[in-house]
Amino acid sequence: MAPPAGLPAKVVVVPPSQTLYITNLPSAKIKKDDLRTALYMLFSTYGPVLDVVSLKTFKMRGQAHIVYRDVQTATQAMRALNGFDFLGRGMVPLSF
Description:
With 96 residues, the protein is α+β, with helices and mostly antiparallel strands. Helix content is 24%, strand content 24%. The chain is globular, with a radius of gyration of 15 Å.
């Protein structure tokens, strides 16, 4: 897929997804199950959450994936929660 006219050739346009990739989460302050529950409670206010994936591995520390039923709900949550203070950190939700 070629980028739209006016964008440099190296820019890749990624279509929106129903999965959000969350970064800048606290990694040491909270247990994995408590983090998953807190993320579920927060993100489910925007629509049905199908899954919350948060691993405590070194590579995935401070990150999570939130899976919604549709792209529109994921986009709404991403816009509303960008920079939201979650357990003392400003989280960054990105479409995945």
